[in-house]
Specification:
The chain is α/β, with parallel strands linked by helices. The chain has nine helices and nine strands.
């Protein structure tokens, strides 16, 4: 039986058309979510973008949703847990055709989203950041991930699927919502990022890559990323997609394409 992502939120006023939706997955980010929202709001203002900021909360217990609400972000509550689930719930609630997603731990600078928007306006379907080209500040990425994990998994994706990027796991990226809906992504965890790149390549979408800087995050809790578990899940995903199967849609750790939306 497939798992259904349950999402509920208060609908924002629809008086103004939204072009850009900034979506931030959130799980216990009370120390940083306000800074991320402030930077995202500054980017919208400085660049005269018609946009919205969505915080997709995935069960925080530290007050993150209240902080986000006080910052006038749209708070979307998503169940069950999982990085992919949080993003799918937030993206489903988004009103903009152009979506920029990024982590709410302050490791990415949301004031620098305009290159993503410009590429999407120019006709690209998916625009990924590349941290290896933009720069990884000291302490921003564990040595194992930087020298082995990410290069290995990206290399597998390039060899097996000819993905046109050098950093499949970068959390700062942009895409057209219409392209996202065509991809029908189903991964519930961290492998969601890889699934987007691989399926986009398989579908012949127009994919671009731009350098981004990764900074040490401001969190006061351990990382949600689990090196070996998430690496294995990504490899399993690649095997499924390489075989051209849809078995993942029937697994209990996958989700249906259209999450249920419930009003509180």
């Amino acid at each position: 039986m497939a798992t259904v992502v349950k999402t509920y939120f208060e609908e924002a006023p629809a008086a103004e058309t939204v072009e850009v939706s900034i979506v931030m997955p959130c799980l216990n980010e009370a120390a940083t979510v306000a800074r991320c929202i402030a930077k995202a709001r500054a980017a919208l203002s400085w660049n005269h973008l018609r946009g919205e900021i969505i915080v997709a909360d995935n069960g925080s217990t530290d007050g993150s949703p209240k902080i986000a609400a006080r910052m006038n972000a749209r708070v979307v509550h998503v169940r069950p847990s999982g990085y992919g689930n949080a993003l799918m719930g937030g993206i489903r609630a988004a009103r903009g055709e152009l979506i920029v997603m990024g982590d709410s731990d302050d490791s990415y600078d949301f004031t620098s989203i305009m290159p993503f928007v410009e590429r999407l306006r120019g006709g690209h379907d998916v625009v990924l950041g590349n941290r290896f080209r933009g720069g990884i500040r000291r302490g921003a990425m564990p040595w194992l991930h930087r020298t082995l994990g990410n290069p290995f998994l990206t290399g597998c994706a390039r060899a097996l699927f000819s993905v046109p990027v050098g950093d499949i796991y970068c959390g700062l990226r942009g895409f057209r919502k219409s392209a996202y809906e065509r991809m029908e992504l189903r991964a519930t965890g961290m492998e969601f990022a890889a699934e987007m790149v691989i399926k986009g390549t398989q579908m012949g979408l127009n994919i671009a890559e731009i350098p981004v800087v990764l900074r040490p995050d401001g969190r006061s809790r351990p990382s949600h990323l689990r090196t070996w578990r998430d690496g294995f899940r990504t490899l399993r995903l690649m095997l499924e997609l390489g075989q051209g199967t849809t078995s993942g849609a029937r697994r209990a750790d996958r989700v249906v394409n259209k999450p249920a939306v419930l009003n509180p």
